[in-house]
Amino acid sequence: MTKIALLGAGGKMGVRLATNLKDTRFDVDHVEVSPEGRDRLKAAVGVGCMDQGQAVSGADVVVMAVPDRLIGKVLKTFVNDLRPNTKVVMLDAAAPHAGELPERDDITYFVTHPCHPPIFNDETDPRAQADHFGGIYAKQHIVCALMQGPEEHYDQCEEVAREIFKPVMRSHRCTVEQLAILEPALSETVGATFCMAIRDATDEAVRRGVPQQAATDFILGHLNVELAIAFQLSPDGKFSDGALQAIDQAKPEIFRDGWLERVFDPKAVMQSVKDICEPPIR
């Protein structure tokens, strides 16, 4: 039986992963340093914890459910205790892409991340509809990258990824660099920023007299249509002439020329992941 050491098992993400790994073919040793986390894990999953050194030294797979900025730092504390051919599964590309991982050629580094449940889906269960992050009831896609290690380790690590993020639909194979383009560049630098800009604009509409609920219902409904058109998910859908005119007039007011090139420039992506690993002092 494959033995997994789950680090950070009592954190928010760790508890989700521990829950999904329960009753699988994997034998899981849970590691959590904080008493609060251990209590949380025991209450949610009904399992206890093991000493980190004992867990990682006997593991076939180490899953690191620790904060992004700590992945490299934590890994360096036990990398020499791992057996050859151990697979280390990380849940974010920041530390791997930033060069934060310790060098050791005889172990495997694998990175995976959830896409989260898509806006357009076929969920009918109210619990799945309310599972916005995924990994509990709602189906989602995932992305995976084999950073180093033998090719046969990809399928083994992907199986773990499918279990910890289940229920999973598509699993996309990418490179670590491509994962860094997806996050933070696409999903956070662009996606999250645009979402907050839409929220700010909605608040401004409310400030100018539009009822709060009316503004919220109006923009969320229109986003549903507009995203379907933009991503060509509505065969007959297209922007009206008035919408196209508004888009052409708004672009130079809202966006600076060359913003896409600047956001996705490899140097900008690298700086972004480095800032995640070592947040700048403010």
TrEMBL record:
Presence of keyword Glycosyltransferase: no
Name this polypeptide is given: Phosphogluconate dehydrogenase C-terminal domain-containing protein
Record flagged with keyword Amino-acid biosynthesis: no
Alphabetical list of Gene3D superfamilies matching this protein: NAD(P)-binding Rossmann-like Domain, Semialdehyde dehydrogenase-like, C-terminal
Domain KARI N-terminal Rossmann: 3-85
Species in which this protein is naturally found: Devosia algicola
InterPro entries in the cross-refs: KARI_N (IPR013116), NAD(P)-bd_dom_sf (IPR036291), PGDH_C (IPR031663), Preph/Arog_dehydrog (IPR050812), Semialdehyde_DH-like_C (IPR037161)
Pfam families per UniProt: KARI_N, PGDH_C
Ranges of residues in domain Phosphogluconate dehydrogenase (decarboxylating) C-terminal: 121-277
Lineage: Bacteria, Pseudomonadati, Pseudomonadota, Alphaproteobacteria, Hyphomicrobiales
Keywords, sorted A to Z: Oxidoreductase
TM ranges: none
